[in-house]
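A quick aside before the break. I want you to see a complete sequence-to-structure record at least once, exactly as it would be stored in a machine-readable document. Don't worry about memorizing anything.
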Amino acid sequence: MQAAINNSLVKALNPGEKPYEVRDTRLKGLILRVQPSGVMAYYVEYARGKRMNLGRADAVTPAQAREAAKRVLAEAYKGGDPMAVRRKERAYTFSSFISEVYAPWAEATIRTPRKTVGRLLGNFPDLQDKKLPEINPWLVEKWRTARLKSGTKKTTVNRDLDDLKSSLAKAVEWGLVETHPIASVKRVRVDTNPIPRFLSDDEHGRLMAALERREEHLRKQRDSANRWRSERGYLPLLGLRLVSYADHLRPMVILSLNTGLRRGELFGLAWRDVNLDDAFITLRGTNTKSMRTRHIPLNATAQDYLSRWRGQSADGDGLVFPGKGGKRFDNVNSSWRKVLKDAEIRGFRWHDMRHDFASKLVMAGVDLNTVRELLGHADLQMTLRYAHLAPEHKAAAVARLVRI
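That is the input. The structure line, written in C-alpha cells, reads:
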C-alpha cells in the first residue's frame, strides 16, 4: 500500500488480521507498519533487505519520522552504515559500561572484581566519557606513553592494559561493539625471564631477628598498656607473653617462606583447609590465580608455627589470618616494610618470599616440575626462571658423557 504518511492517515488506519505496511509517496524508503494489535511503527528501508526502526507512531509524529528517515538515507547515500551510526549514538560510555555492565559480571565471575573494576575506572581518565566505538589504538597508545613517562612500571602498565583489553573483549562478546577496538595494541616488552630475588643466608638471619625484635617490642607495649590500665582500675588486655605470637606477621612470613603461597592465597586461607595432622594445606581453586585447587605439604617449621598460631586463634572455622573484625586482609605493607628496614634488607617484596621458596628448592636439588606443581604454575615456562640456580645438576648431566 502506498500513501502520503501524515497525521490524518495515521488516525484513519485500522489494524487488519495480518500486519501490513504503508510506503510513503513523499519519501522513498519511509514505511509505516501496522500490527494486528493496532500498534504502528515507522521504519526506514535504506537498502534492499535493510531497514531501521524509527519509533512507534504513538511517540513519533510523521514529520519527525520523515526527518529521521532522511538522515538515515543520507548516511546510506554517502556510503556509510546507518546501523553503525545508531550503535555509536546509543553506545555505552566506557565508564557506564564498566559500572553498569562489566562490574556485575566481574563480581560474579573473576577473582578480584573490586580491584579490577577500580583500576578500569581509575587508571584510564581519558577513556571514561568515550563511547565504546570511539575507543581506538591511538588513545590507548597515548595513555601508555604518558604512564611510562610518569615512571609507572612496565609490568603495571601491562596489567592495566590486560584489564582494559579483557573488558572490551566482553563488550564484543555481548554485542555492544562489532569488533575489538584495541585488539592491535601490544603489551610493553619486558624481561620474561628475570632473575628471581631470594634471601641470602645472612639476610634470612637478619629477617628472623627483626621479626623477633618486633614481637618483643609489641609485648613491651602491651605490658606498658596493662600497667597503665591496672593503675586506673581498668581490666587488662590479653597479655602477649601468654601467647606464642604477638600478632599475625611472624607466622605469616614463616608460612610464606616455607610454602610459596601467593599473598592472596595466604590472606584467603581458612582453617578448614589446614590439615595439621597430615601436614598439608589445600588451596581451593576459588582462591588461586590459576583457579585450580592444589595441595601443599607443610614442612616441620611451617607445621610448628601453624600449630602454635592455631592454639591462639579465636575463630576455629574462619580465616587463618583474619584482619580487623574477622575480615580478610587487604595488605600488611606497613608492618612488612618496617621489618625489612629494621633487618636492613633492600629490594625484597612480599612476593619475593615466593621466589625465595622456589629458589631454595631448586638449589636443594628439587626438580623443576615438582617446583612448578608446588607453585601452582600452569606450565613449566614460568618455573624455568629458576633453572639457572641448579648449575651443578646440569654439570653432572654433561659429565655423564665422559668415557673412562
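Two observations worth writing down. The mean pLDDT is 89. The longest strand covers residues 40-47. We'll return to this after the break.
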